[in-house]
Amino acid sequence: MTLRKLHVAVLMGGWANEREVSLMSGEGVAKSLEQGGHRVTRIDMDRDVAARISAAAPDVVFNALHGVPGEDGTVQGMLDLMGVPYTHSGLATSVVAIDKQLTKLVLGSQGIPFPGGRIVSTEEIHRQDPLPRPYVLKPVNEGSSVGVAIVTDEANYGNPIDPSAAGPWQQFDRLLAEPFIRGRELTTAVIDTPEGPRALMVTELVPKSGFYDFAAKYTDGMTEHVCPAQIPERVAELCREYASKAHLLLGCEGTSRTDFRWDDDLGEDGLFVLETNTQPGMTPLSLVPEQARHAGIEYGELVEMIIGAALRKHSDKQARDQASKAARDG
Q: 329 catalytic, yes or no?
């Protein structure tokens, strides 16, 4: 697709754990838009962001923020109040999708398989293990594998976990405890098109050591991306099916990425969804641009597709608002 020439404010940075990743995503988007002839205003998120967006008066905001407050509904609500079109998912979707437990409740009730588990307090895990080892502890509302710990009998965390041991319990009061799913790390991107959401393909992520944590995601050479994944076609079909279903059920817009663990010893029954990311990275190492490229969609086209989805959403909302006003006015 080709957009008319726009003034785009690229919102990036902020103060979340993923600030540096967001800056890389935002800069990639900004440069791509400039190369396409668009006018770009770069905005590093701060407490005066509403005033700065208002002063810039863009046609649309490209939300390249990751984590809180750019991915949890806070920025989305602000932009809704300002009446400014913006990319990616809206307020309600963002609130639910960033919370791993809420996502599990919404999608699990619709037949999408998730690992078991429950929310635990840090005080509890220092008294006893919440699940049989091995298990995973992760923050309820962080992305990019920030603060994930795999607790095994061999881990240097102690038994029970010692409060002085380095881990997410030192940063967060509440954690999600899940059984550890052995096997392989898979992910599938979905992008919105004028014809509807399109699941791209499946990538397998093979860390050179350890597991696919924050460092493995964003350090060049630490993880091999096998795209498309060398897996049975039926498992790939299920990944695309679950990713598309998650995108629709959560109400994602623009693009999303759903992450999986697959225990290949169990075949189709070994596939589990871990989370759906409503604001996937747009860095040189990011998975959505990589899958899009394999599907014949270059980076600049992908950026314009995401913006096009945002403008369609805004236009549809304006039409609904006008219809509601006409109905009220009689």
A: no
